[in-house]
């Protein structure tokens, strides 16, 4: 376990303990599509960052965070454009990222967005849940 | 929204207790500024400011315990008097904020106090905050704040949202008051294990409402 921190040196606020065995990977284009901040300082992230995918730490309970700011619901007028439907593996199941509902920012310096609160669904639409996804490329780990 | 969920995706919980804290007071007193900075730069994009912040989670260390705070701002709902009982439900701490440069907001604190005591849990810890104390256009003196606080039986601090340490100090002060109360209660009810605290436990409720010392 490592602690993800705000990537700005003058802040460095602790965000969450990252469990590397439970990361999820999405196509890197998700960062631009959802307008997530991309830190230049987190190049020492997992080597898996290189290539077409970008890592997220995914939790279902917001209390897993030590410090986090959560936005209100994103109004349709400024909802991020999603170029394509994103699919990822999480706990041995395949999930579709249906919608980005809220953004997450650093609780101390308010910089971000560093992650998002998303509605995800299994492809057969039998299961649906709301998850907190912190982009490891938007923080220091 | 439930505030009493203990599990995390990564397994066991990583805190000793959690507390829902609310900020109330008239519009414009700077409640939001106690929660969010409005400094805009490349990494503080305006679309986030436009959307607004729902809540923040902050972790503080109180007496060696890891306490997680969930901080909520009414965010303008007070203008329409639509703050519902649901908003107050489960709140363990409530910060009543006025603006030291606006006497009207100070005078309205009594009304807020009445509303809060009507809707909030009896054992919720209140704190009176005179905000914008750095402004030279102050019209409400520190003494006036202290007098009102003493009358209502509330602890009192002045704050400047421009000073981050000062803002964090407010949350820390309130949290410590709550944690001390929980610790005292845990001991008095005889189930003090010094560890986990179940905030849902009705036995943790105090019959005393007074914060006066």
Textual characterization of the structure:
Chain A is mainly beta and 141 residues long. Chain A has a single domain (2-135), classed as Metal Binding Protein, Guanine Nucleotide Exchange Factor, Chain A (Beta Complex), CATH 2.170.150. Chain A is built from 1 helix and 9 strands, in the order E-E-E-H-E-E-E-E-E-E. Chain A has one helix at residues 29-33, and strands at 2-5, 14-18, 23-27, 53-59, 68-71, 86-90, 93-105, 115-121, 128-135. In chain A, strands 3, 4, 5, 6, 7, 8 and 9 form a 7-stranded antiparallel beta sheet that branches. A two-stranded antiparallel ribbon of chain A has the order 1-2. In chain A, strand 6 and strand 7 form a beta hairpin. Chain A is globular, with a radius of gyration of 14 Å. The model of chain A is unreliable at 42-50 (pLDDT under 50). Chain B is α/β, with parallel strands linked by helices. Chain B has a single domain (17-185), classed as Rossmann fold, CATH 3.40.50. Chain B has 7 helices and 6 strands, in the order E-H-H-E-E-H-E-H-H-E-H-E-H. In chain B, strands 2-3-1-4-5-6 form a 6-stranded mixed beta sheet, sandwiched between helices. The radius of gyration of chain B is 17 Å and the shape is globular. The two termini of chain B are 33 Å apart. The A-B interface holds A 1, 8, 14, 17, 19, 22, 35, 37, 58-75, 78, 102-103, 105, 107-113 and B 5-10, 13-15, 18, 36-37, 39, 41, 43-45, 47-48, 50-59, 68, 75, 164.
Key phrases:
heterodimer, A: about 140 residues, mainly beta, Metal Binding Protein, Guanine Nucleotide Exchange Factor, Chain A, 7-stranded antiparallel sheet, 9 strands, B: about 210 residues, alpha/beta, Rossmann fold, 6-stranded mixed sheet, 7 helices, disordered N terminus, disordered C terminus, transport (chain B)
